[in-house]
Amino acid sequence: MSNLDNLTQKILEDAKNKASEIVDEAEKKNRSLINHRVKEANEKKEKVIEKAAAEAQMLKSRVISSAELKVRDEKLSAKQEVMDKVFQMAKDKLSNLDKKDYLDYVKASLEKIRTDGRPTLLIPVGKMDQLKELSADLELVEDPSVKSGYILKDGEIVYNYTFDALVDEIREDLEGEIAQKLFEE
Hints:
By secondary structure, this protein is α+β, with helices and mostly antiparallel strands. It contains three helices and four strands, in the order ααββββα. The radius of gyration is 47 Å and the shape is rod-shaped.
């Protein structure tokens, strides 16, 4: 029996060793699996953090860009408002020419226009006395729609020499130059 006992003891020891090896192997695999999962989780965490940082940077850039555009638009709007005021001041100053300067302007500009027959000069209300001495070849008519300067009608041709029209006409040419002088930076 002792052989049988020895054999049984040997089988039990082998089984214990085998069980111990299996348990060790399972624990080793378990640790490896846990380490692998922890590594994957850390990698995912880093990617999420990187993505969030990139999105935050992009959002920050958009907000800054938007603010810069708004400031630029407001600045341009303010400059445009100043330009409008400058040209309105020019129109107002021209509209308030004294009698002599207004008469000189009308005479000088009429000399440059060739007319046929007897043209009609439409003038602002209240300017008739200032322009009485003009050529007898003109018919003077006060017109409430003419606020400044004058309009000359010669048959089908209409010459608009109102100060508003003249200032608006030269505005495009002068705007850049005036802006440069007003807003030198």
